[in-house]
Amino acid sequence: MGRGDGTGRLVSADDADDAGTGILHVDMDAFYASVEQLDDPSLLGKPIIVGAPDGRSVVSSASYEARRFGVRSAMPVGQALRLCPTAIVVLPHFDRYLELSAQVMGIFRDVTPLVEPLSIDEAFLDVRGVRRLWGSPGVIARALRARLREETGLVCSVGVAATKHVAKMASTLSKPDGLLIVAESGTEAFLRPQSVRALWGVGPKAAESLQGRGIRTVADVLDTPREVLDRALGRAMGERIWHLARGIDHREVDTSRVEKSVGHEETFHEDIADPIILRAELRRLADRVGARLRAGGWEASTIAIKVRFADFSTISRSQTLPEPTAVGQRIGDAAHELFESVERPLPVRLIGVRAERLQGAGSAPLALWDDDQEWRRIEDALDGAAARFGRGAVTRATLLGAARGGGTLPSNPPAPKLDQG
Fold first, then answer.
1. Catalytic residue status for 340
2. Catalytic option among 36, 65, 116, 122
3. Could you read off the pLDDT of 183-237 as tens digits, one per residue?
4. Do 359 and 385 sit in the same domain of this protein?
5. Rg of the chain taking only CA atoms, in angstroms
6. Sheet of strand 179-181, all strands in order from the earlier edge strand to the far edge
7. Does residue 213 belong to any structural domain of this protein?
8. Which residues form the domain of 122?
9. Which of 58, 165, 388, 405 sits between 20 and 30 A of 232, alpha carbons compared?
10. pTM score
């Protein structure tokens, strides 16, 4: 199986059989890092880390040159620099990533209306209905890769298969800048040598449970009685793995898929114990989350916070709101209430705010009165100022002062809002 640094990648020949396929999984390679290299050609071919230069922050993305040293996303930047001392740390530019993501998703929808964005940089495409227009799935995948490179300057990896699960596995194996086609008749042969960890839903604990029973590959799963899988994983997971190992995946490409959450988190330069400072940082993060919700046309029904202490222990708390909101003031109030319920035995290293259970703005029934009307008016004005003068041009007086962290980082940047017109 291919590795995150691109070694061991598998790609298809130009005349590869694509019979019975129709699902594409397209994944932009090292997206944040690739955008930075696109905008600054002096970074091409060099190991770069996208994140704050503070060693306490985490890696948002890394180029394949850095990954070959063992650098991975979500790794502390300090650890990444120890693994790759020559790496160049580049501050993230999320507005630019969203801009290019919107362009990429638009190209996908030019090919087929059946597009399911999974995140800012990957999506499933169902091309079964556009074969007469564009050709077979393999032809479509090659043309799509060429068009993305020509129009955006970015490269992607594509998996082509009969099901979503196999297509995603194939794109992972082909990275970077590859195309892997798995014909329907070749699905079992493709799956058999793969690690059980490659199966959808098999995390570290499930993999450990399976490996403890000598089940290490998909071939082992195929040779294992169903009741053994059920005992190892539970009935629901056992059934899922039994089907996926046989290439059975009835999930369709879902064009109505909604992002599950929007979040921002901050890693501090120094651990902070002062609750006044921590509450101010929560308010700052809540305002950022609210702005992203409004920009995407979403409202959130649940607010969650994340707190990581000096010893790296981490807790999270969440609450459901009486009404969905995209108002930063309301999100901050909920975050403060959750924060007060947290015992804090140690200073805080990282803090985060997340909006969950998203729905389209205005889709909830109207309340008899709007408690947030004034705050909504103020935040609409702030959004206008940000669009004209840049984010941070106008802010709360309580948030003025020197930055205490490496910059707020989106913990799950959503795919751009689909154009319903």
1. no
2. 122
3. 999 999 999 999 999 998 888 888 999 999 999 999 999 999 999 999 988 888 8
4. yes
5. 23
6. 115-119, 122-126, 23-28, 156-161, 179-181
7. yes
8. 9-185
9. 165
10. 0.72
